[in-house]
Amino acid sequence: MRTLYLALMLLLSGCAAFTTTPQAPPPPTQHAQEISRAQSVGLPKLGTITATTRGSPDDAQRAIAAKANQAGAVYYQILMLDETTLPSFWYATAILYGAPSTGAAAQQ
């Protein structure tokens, strides 16, 4: 019984690791900015983008930033950055966000 109780406590305390406290995103600039999941609360989603590049993970991140700028996004959040089955080819996926609405900014 004690083992079951301990396992239940560990399981429930582990759930807290997946919750985030909302944070305000940085002020908008001329270029799209990468934000964290906690900063994306309340922002309007514009869509998703992907990029596949040869080189390094940094090259894939730069490709995502360039595509976010081309799409007119204010912010983006990289969801996945992974090397493909081919060496030195990287694949990235990101969510694009627009500027916060005045109501959402006032709540944060």
From TrEMBL:
InterPro entries referenced in this protein's UniProt entry, alphabetically: BhsA/McbA_stress_biofilm_assoc (IPR051096), Dodecin-like (IPR025543), YdgH-like_sf (IPR036275), YdgH/BhsA/McbA-like_dom (IPR010854)
SUPFAM superfamilies documented for this protein: YdgH-like
Highest taxon in the source lineage: Bacteria
Entry keyword annotation includes Signal: yes
Gene3D superfamilies: Flavin-binding protein dodecin
Any matching Pfam family: YdgH_BhsA-like
Keywords linked to the UniProt accession: Signal
Keyword Transferase on entry: no
Leader sequence segment: 1-24
Domain YdgH/BhsA/McbA-like positions: 45-97
Name used for this protein in its record: Biofilm peroxide resistance protein BsmA
Origin species: Pantoea endophytica
